[in-house]
Amino acid sequence: MNKLLIVGSVAFDAIETPFGKTDKILGGAAPYIGLSASHFDIQTAIVSVVGEDFPQDYLDLLTARNIDISALEIVKGGKTFFWSGLYHNDLNSRDTLATELNVLGDFQPKVPENFKDADVVMLGNLHPLVQNSVIDQMAVQPKLIVLDTMNFWMDCALPELLAVMKKIDVITINDEEARQLSGEYSLVKAAAKIQTMGPKYVVIKKGEHGALLFHNTEVFFAPALPLEEVFDPTGAGDTFAGGFAGFITQSENISFENMKNAVIYGSNLASFSVEKFGTERMVSLTQEEVKARLKQFKLLTQFDIEI
Amino acid sequence: MNKLLIVGSVAFDAIETPFGKTDKILGGAAPYIGLSASHFDIQTAIVSVVGEDFPQDYLDLLTARNIDISALEIVKGGKTFFWSGLYHNDLNSRDTLATELNVLGDFQPKVPENFKDADVVMLGNLHPLVQNSVIDQMAVQPKLIVLDTMNFWMDCALPELLAVMKKIDVITINDEEARQLSGEYSLVKAAAKIQTMGPKYVVIKKGEHGALLFHNTEVFFAPALPLEEVFDPTGAGDTFAGGFAGFITQSENISFENMKNAVIYGSNLASFSVEKFGTERMVSLTQEEVKARLKQFKLLTQFDIEI
After folding, report:
1. ipTM of this model?
2. A290 touching B, CB under 8 A?
3. What are B110-132's pLDDT values in tens digits?
4. Which domain of life is it from (chains A, B) (predicted)?
5. CATH assignment of A3-301?
6. A96–chain B nearest CA distance, Å
């Protein structure tokens, strides 16, 4: 079975949306990526760090989905990374109420021996130096390295981000971040410029407006599924990335044509993630539901004009 | 040949974008709709009104594209409707600098005898009473009536708008207008509610984020083609509507499956319209260019996941 290595935060999230609020629940990039990727027939491991306050239930939840957490370090006496956010009425914008890095501040990822030959590496949003250290630990060049990042690192660690970007294959960022990173307003121009910085593939996430995949002069668009209700957008981008990376790992095919399918899988899984608070929907999600919604994606996008 | 009747404003537009500005050029909904629809093998007529200041060149331009302008009234001593707008840097928002209704203020549309049996009627954005009077003049029930409107009429003539909506088949509005008209934030819920008001099909235009087509529980999404540069978005929505209506008129098929193709044709033609100021690009556009870009739309959206 092919291997996907996931590196990213594991967190407590406290979320408030117009539909309700949660106490501290399971959050962070790695669980969203991992739970999403767990819907594929692959071996998955998470490299991350939590504090002693991290409940066994959450560890069990990940293990139950066949995610290898032997490299999820538990720091004795430490506290788990905590994030709290308040979504506005349109769910497209949010205020961060709290960010307590705690044990994540000193995170030194250690790639387990049995994943140093992972086929695909998914680097969740973290300090670029941490992302870089993971790449350096790989014994075999992965078939594909996917990196997620955010505007915060463009502001505070741009040289380090640019350095790690030279070593990766795919970058996933949102539209505003693509504009900031490239200095170009047009997403076509932005993606072209970002490709000169290293990654051969650029995925631009536009939230409810879908996602664009760029490679050379090729471009593909995956819409977000129009939903009656978006309950909690937290983790949608990571769920998308997990679906993308998971599908590529399973299929062993990094052609642009197959990446189109990966982007659709990512959008598909993300469309479930936002239906409930946190990771709840991803845990209950069945293969039948995934398949049924893939059919919806076909109906949503496929047409038969003869040219 | 099937007939498409177009009713809408004919105007002088003065446009300023970050890329330049124009003096008074040909504008208004009807020319954009008509030039877009002129790319299909159909008979097209425009019902509208202009002043004596309207140049023969613009009339010739429409006639050269086989658009019947015998019902384009020219008011002696009157002045043509004038609109002036300034686009912001992102081209997604604009300020209206001037709106001088002039002869459009007293417009009484007269449907020509030979188009009272039109297969499709495209009602461009006008006062709902004017749109209604066109429907009342039809001798034969059209196969499809498409209506475009805007928030202005929701604010100032809502009862009249709701009345004409009961007589139409397809409404095209943008996302904010769909939310205003329905009181629902979710576009899925908004489209469902708008369908209870009359139109069986709801097209929600999202500008650079594409367009959604709703009918009962079915939904289809046409992306906007990602462009290196959008030069002037004026008339993109009308060009979209003209492509939609023109394709339906030509194909005589109002199934949901065929409407998907119509929405793609609309997006395709709109992607050209924004490449130059005003109607310039639509006038020079060739069938070969349209076909080549349809292929781009296929590459942009089609995937081959086996389910």
Report:
1. 0.94
2. no
3. 999 999 999 999 999 999 999 99
4. Bacteria
5. 3.40.1190.20
6. 23
